[in-house]
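Homework help board

Subject: predicted structure for assignment chain

Our instructor gave us this sequence and asked us to write out the predicted structure in token form, then describe one feature. I got the tokens but I'm not sure how to describe them. Can anyone check?
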Amino acid sequence: MTGPMNRFDDLAPGLLGGTRPERPVADAPHEGLRRLVRDWSLEVTPRTAEALTSRPPPAGTQIYITHLPGHPFEEVIATAERLKTQGYDPIPHLVARAIPDRDTLESWLLGLTHRAGVDGVLLLAGSLAAPHGPYADSLALLEAVNLRDHGIHRLAMAGHPEGHPQADTATLDAALATKRDYAARHGLEAWLVTQFLFDAEPLLTWRQRLHDQGLALPIRAGLPGPASLATLWKYALSCGIGASRTALARQGKRLFKLARPQPPTRQLLALAEAAPDDLRLHFYPFGGIAATLDWVEALDEGRFTLEGAGDELRMTSH
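My token output:
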């Protein structure tokens, strides 16, 4: 499973597994924000992907497709096929614990590559209490199969800036090093996609630590799309994210009664100020596809002003 994962020049072409043409960057003070937002990606389920028909993102957008627990993988393949024909870059989730056997794994990969035309996946262990087959985690799957032999040339991996409830930091780092080495050995383009964050600081600290350990990889930083604070709190509780949940709570209980969707402005501005070249954004549209796309595309197209002390965003119509 995956659902919301708790589970990127300025960059060289393809460094984050995407092919969408770059847009020109505006002059300061917009430059940092637009540079960060360019080449953003989106997460959908097979069901929510249907909303893209009436509210399409730009052609070439990288769209990640979750494999929900209890749902057939055929839904993922069919969604990837449809998105590919519509001009997007689908990146399906491949959940190790959901795969019952080697034959099924090969069948799923065949469906993705030959039928849907996909050459990249996001590899996850998954949150199932017990694996359905021999792959207890993503490392077990990589030990059993050469993804490149099955048509996969791009490998996205889960990143956990705020840790994971079932693994300590040393274990997570060791697993990441093994997966990075696997990608290099098999000539796979590799990058990280993180859990969603309500605070930029854990991500920036985690990114620096990876650099210090020689584990630097391009990163797609997960942010929630505009949604009510009550909705955001629900997802924070369900996914167990730590420091970000605390940051959300600091905004005050009174705000939870507001109906107006809250965009991830504070996280975005903090990341833009840090302006790392290897960072792009990945959006979880908890408040709906249309609301997320409207907000992100306004940023991408420079339709905003910086107000206050430079820590407030106001969207404009032009």
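Reply (TA_rk): Your tokens look well-formed. For the description, you could write something like this. The CA atoms of residues 114 and 151 lie 8 Å apart. That's the kind of observation they're looking for.
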